[in-house]
UniProtKB/TrEMBL annotation:
Pfam families: Glyco_hydro_1 (PF00232). Belongs to the glycosyl hydrolase 1 family. InterPro entries: GH, Glyco_hydro_1. Keywords: Glycosidase, Hydrolase. GO terms for molecular function: beta-glucosidase activity. It comes from Streptomyces chartreusis. GO terms for cellular component: cytosol. The lineage of its organism: Bacteria, Bacillati, Actinomycetota, Actinomycetes, Kitasatosporales. This is Family 1 glycosylhydrolase. Signal peptide: none annotated. GO terms for biological process: carbohydrate catabolic process.
């Protein structure tokens, strides 16, 4: 039998939760995703509509996070709100997001601002998206216009969330795939990979030129590819275009975000689905809390010891909050073990602060905080109380013998 011990947080350790603008704000009507949600041919289960109404209720969200004991909040700003038509920037929307930054600071929450979290303006998609001529310059222009939002008090900025998934989705679209395979990911589009890497590097350069005190990075979706005996090279070849190339692109950044939820086993013929009797989450992923530890170790092995690691997303979609607590407990055991082994882990941000719009459906509930779909009332779950208490105690739990 085990009991839980604790280790102190390292100095400056980020302890918080993450969200994405489109998934919680509501009525992001100028984005490509809004258009897709309302296109019958896209086969989207349900549209985002009002989402969590966090565009108007962000202060309630931050109040809860601060009261629970969290010290950090990662949230996204929406390009399509700030630049609804090309070359026209909304001063009102820039002021709105600046109020969010100031609101976080006033509550003792360090803001991590994500500049791009999957959605783009409709006009950018119409130009051809990331692979269009001049796309990198257009993204940098938008990033530079965000200066009033991030210039004062924002310690961390994420340029692009999960660029490997952007390339994977582009690859699936080009191949005409309507869904993901039973295990693993579609082949990323190579042109999109080059484009988002170039956009990231250009954005980092622009941000450092104007905001040298801000720590800049991006986040990668880590699939935790595990090789079966004899399939080590197959696994390395499979993983590199889907993950490692994006980790390698972060060399020289101020930090890299590690995001993991489950694992993927690889055999001689490629990915192998989880066994039929494996416990699965509401997203049908295998329940595997140790994933985050593997993801941290692999990322560190690829990028080296000099780049700090931040867990920017980790969590579980479940209707059983006791399983959420168990999942987080197992995940934090893995994080604590990484710290014990000397990995340069600087923070842990849970996904997600709120039950939100999970890219086509509200059914997968990842949130620490429940949201009533009619009244938008917020209710912290027991998992939020438990995870937040660790922030108040400034101690990271781990299993002990």
């Amino acid at each position: 039998m085990t009991h839980r011990t604790a280790i102190p947080f390292p100095d400056g350790f980020l302890w918080g939760a993450s969200t994405a603008g489109h998934q919680i704000e509501g009525n992001n009507v100028n984005s490509d995703w809004w258009r897709k949600e309302h296109d019958p041919a896209a086969g989207i289960e349900e549209p985002s509509l009002d989402a969590c109404d966090s565009y108007h209720r962000w202060d309630e969200d931050m109040d809860l996070l601060a009261e629970l004991g969290f010290t950090d909040y990662r949230f996204g700003i929406e390009w399509s709100r700030i630049e609804p038509v090309p070359g026209t920037f909304s001063r009102a929307e820039i002021a709105h997001y600046r109020r969010m930054v100031e609101g976080a600071l006033a509550r003792g929450l360090r803001p991590m601002v994500t500049l791009h979290h999957f959605t783009v303006p409709q006009w950018f998609e119409d130009l051809g998206g990331w692979t269009a001529d001049g796309a990198v310059d257009l993204f940098v222009r938008y990033v530079e216009q965000c200066a009033p939002i991030i210039a004062d008090g924002v310690p961390y900025v994420c340029t692009i969330n999960e660029p490997n998934m952007i390339a994977v989705m582009a690859g699936a679209a080009k191949a005409g795939d309507q869904g993901f395979p039973p295990a693993g990911l579609p082949t990323p589009d190579e042109e999109t990979t080059h484009a988002v890497v170039a956009a990231h590097h250009a954005a980092v350069k622009a941000l450092r030129g104007k905001h040298p005190d801000i720590k800049v990075g991006w986040t990668v979706a880590n699939q935790v590819y595990q090789a079966l005996p004899g399939a080590e090279q197959v696994t390395a070849d499979y993983r590199h275009p889907r993950e490692d190339v994006f980790i390698e692109a972060a060399r020289g950044d101020d930090w890299i975000g590690v995001q993991s939820y489950t694992r993927t086993k690889i055999g001689a013929d490629g990915p192998i689905p989880a066994p039929e009797d494996a416990e699965r989450t509401l997203t049908q992923w295998e329940y595997y809390p140790a994933a985050v530890g593997h993801a941290l170790r692999h990322t560190a092995a690829v990028i080296g010891d000099d780049t700090p690691l931040i867990v920017t997303e980790n969590g579980i979609a479940t209707a059983d909050d006791t399983r959420r607590v168990d999942y987080y407990a197992g995940a934090l055991d893995a994080v604590a073990a990484c710290l014990d082994d000397g990995l340069n882990v600087r923070g842990y941000l849970a996904w997600s602060a709120l039950d939100n719009y999970e890219w086509g459906s509200y059914r997968p509930t990842f949130g620490l905080i429940a949201v009533d779909p009619v009244t938008f009332a917020r209710m912290a779950k027991p998992s939020a109380e438990w995870l937040g208490s660790l922030g108040r105690e400034r101690a990271l739990p781990r299993a002990g013998a």
